Amino acid sequence: MDVHIGTFDAEVRAVDDRTLVSPEVVDVIAREVLRRLESRQSSEAARRADATVWNSVREDAR
Basic and acidic residues composition bias: which ranges (predicted)? Predict the structure, then answer.
């Protein structure tokens, strides 16, 4: 099954017939992965913004 959500692409392949999941479960998994990616990206952006502020304070102190 190919999954495309926004800029996130993935191919989901069953490796064992006993572990097949419904499209609804795949949707839940994909939404959770996207939520965590967005959280990681926003955390990284906040970290960069904080570093920029502190670096400018250090430069002004010189």
Answer: 39-50
